[in-house]
Structure to design on (316 residues):
């Protein structure tokens, strides 16, 4: 999702160019029906990873690209880039095969001035365009919006309680406390992937209210994005649903536990709030991505966040 500004900007400057997009299997539905993408190339990493990588390289070479922009910093995509046969190869200097690229762009995380990941990514095409900023964007279809119309009868918020990493996930007990504090009359929809259903069901069953529905695993990525665009507020962790909100310019409250917005993955919506611990904590941030458990065993970066901080961002 944070690569989509490049699609928007490249199409703006080169409307006749054919833009292909390579991603790993499982994420292709995010770009389904995108008006500016010519072809989506899908690499299956989970089955026959090396064999499929070589097949993908052969396919890329057959396409005879003029330019390849590599947003990742991993060996595999470096290999696809370096041996693609494209006329120009542009990527970040932290890619282990960047010495084979035509142009290398410095990739910096942190420092005195926080740079958003979308800005870092747009640096790859600045020489071919200009300094202007383009936002991330998703394109749910009319059918995606129709599919969520049944949930639009009253004022509602969404809560996406899960994260791949434990230390980036606001604890279930804290979500329950927050949901129980939401004023009556506001519907609450719990969102996430199929693997998040047990967590969402636990939260629903633990809450003392009827106005809560589990939609986890029932909606596609783009349907979830469509629903979030109509919500009064969307409550998310530092995880994918945060970027759904940014790509739809949907109102969002982003909760940061072990990570910080300064890493460059903050919300971009016009209406956005950041919730985090109110006092400095000696161990925070403890890592760029998070951990399976709190290294210090106390998880204060999450437990010390007050529910009033979340309630404060509810629209009147």
């Amino acid at each position: 999702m944070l690569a989509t500004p490049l699609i928007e900007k490249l199409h703006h400057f080169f409307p006749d160019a054919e833009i292909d997009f390579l991603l790993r299997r499982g994420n292709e539905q995010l770009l389904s029906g995108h008006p500016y993408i010519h072809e989506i190339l899908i690499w299956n990493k989970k089955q026959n990873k090396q064999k499929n990588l070589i097949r993908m390289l052969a396919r890329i070479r057959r396409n005879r690209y003029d330019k390849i922009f590599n947003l990742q910093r991993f060996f595999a995509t470096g290999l696809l880039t370096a041996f693609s046969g494209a006329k120009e190869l542009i990527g970040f200097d932290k890619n282990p095969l960047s010495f084979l690229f035509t142009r290398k762009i410095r990739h910096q995380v942190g420092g005195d001035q926080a740079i958003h990941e979308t800005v870092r990514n747009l640096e790859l095409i600045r020489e071919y365009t200009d300094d202007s900023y383009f936002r991330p964007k998703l394109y749910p279809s009319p059918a995606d919006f129709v599919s969520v119309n049944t949930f639009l009868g009253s004022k509602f918020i969404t809560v996406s309680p899960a994260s791949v990493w434990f230390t980036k996930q606001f604890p279930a007990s804290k979500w329950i406390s927050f949901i129980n504090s939401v004023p009556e009359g506001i519907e609450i929809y719990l969102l996430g992937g199929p693997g998040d259903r047990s967590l969402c069901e636990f939260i629903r069953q633990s809450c003392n209210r009827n106005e809560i529905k589990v939609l986890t695993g029932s909606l596609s990525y783009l349907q979830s994005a469509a629903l979030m665009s109509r919500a009064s507020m969307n409550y998310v962790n530092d995880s994918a649903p945060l970027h759904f909100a940014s790509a739809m310019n949907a109102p969002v409250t982003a909760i940061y536990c072990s990570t910080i917005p300064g890493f460059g993955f903050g919300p971009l919506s016009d209406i956005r709030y950041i919730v985090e611990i109110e006092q400095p904590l000696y161990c925070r941030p403890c890592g760029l991505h998070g951990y399976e458990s709190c290294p210090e065993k106390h998880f204060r970066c999450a437990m010390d966040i007050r529910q009033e901080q979340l309630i404060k961002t509810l629209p009147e």
Residues 49-63 form the longest helix (15 residues).
